[in-house]
Amino acid sequence: MVTGMVLSSMPVGDYDKRLALLTKERGKLTVFAKGARRPGSHLMAAATPFVFGSFQLNESRNSYHLQYASVRSYFTELARSQPEIYYGFYFLELADYYGQENNDESKMLNLLYLTLKALMNPKIDNRLIRRAFELRILTVQGEYPQVGACASCGEKDDLTAFSCRKHGILCRACAPNAPDAQGMDASAVYALQYIIYAPLQKLYAFAVKPRIQAQLDAAVGELMRQTLDRKIKSQEILDVMAGG
To answer: What is the pLDDT of residues 117-172, one digit of tens each?
Structure first.
């Protein structure tokens, strides 16, 4: 029995499905759900993206097969909401991109679960959720930028810009030496620090003004473009909705 979330589901044959399952105990697994598309199958509801719960797997020599699922959440409210559903699929795809088999993915699974919960909270801006999730998943992977001090000289005060080339925040003295430096208010710098270092349970317990959101979009958006080696399909929809 493993705890996890269904990241994707594809039809196989006449009645089966192939799932990408992110699990706490064994990382990302490819799992076959035999007969999941057959009417009346006890696996039909569980073999669907966003489903979170416990999954009983049968391991053969080369594959895993789903035997039974105890679902804790279907995230049905998310499935009925737009544009939240598009953000949700993007988060699933990012987790699929980074997830690895036989790896401890408990942090990523917890992040994904709490992020989907945040999406269903109308008081939290979806754009902020996106940038927080992106930066936090990089943190889980150990690829996060230097935000506690200047990435060039180590100065901890007067931090005023962000540079992807330097992979971090720059102070006022060093910013002119980075051609790609993007100006950042102190509140934007603090937001980056908070996203990286805050306890997971409090990750979405803050808000930012439109000006700060725009700076986060520019910095984290460019960071993701530099980091990912392929296009995330649902990212295109989000970029169109964001106007870029």
So the answer is: 999 999 999 999 999 999 999 999 999 999 999 999 999 999 999 999 999 999 99
Query: What does the chain look like in DSSP terms, one character per residue?
Result: -EEEEEEEEEEETTTEEEEEEEETTTEEEEEEETTTTSTT-TTTTTSSTT-EEEEEEEE-SS-EEEEEEEEEE--HHHHT-TTHHHHHHHHHHHHHHH--BTS--HHHHHHHHHHHHHHT-TTS-HHHHHHHHHHHHHHHTT---B-SS-TTT---S-EEEEETTTTEEEETTTGGG-TT-EE--HHHHHHHHHHHHS-GGGTTS----HHHHHHHHHHHHHHHHHH-SS--HHHHHHHHHHT-
Cis omega (within 30 of 0) for bond into 11: no
β pairing state of 27-33 and 64-73: parallel
Contact (CB, 8 A) for 145 and 151: yes
CB 22 within 8 A of CB 95: yes
37 neighbors 25 (Cβ within 8 angstroms): no
Calculate mean pLDDT across residues 87-110: 95
Convert 103-136 to b/e letters by CB count within 10 Å (16 or more is b): eebeebbebbbbbbebbeeeebbbbbbbbbbbbb
The pTM score is 0.94
Angle (nearest 5°) at CA 213 between 86 and 159: 135
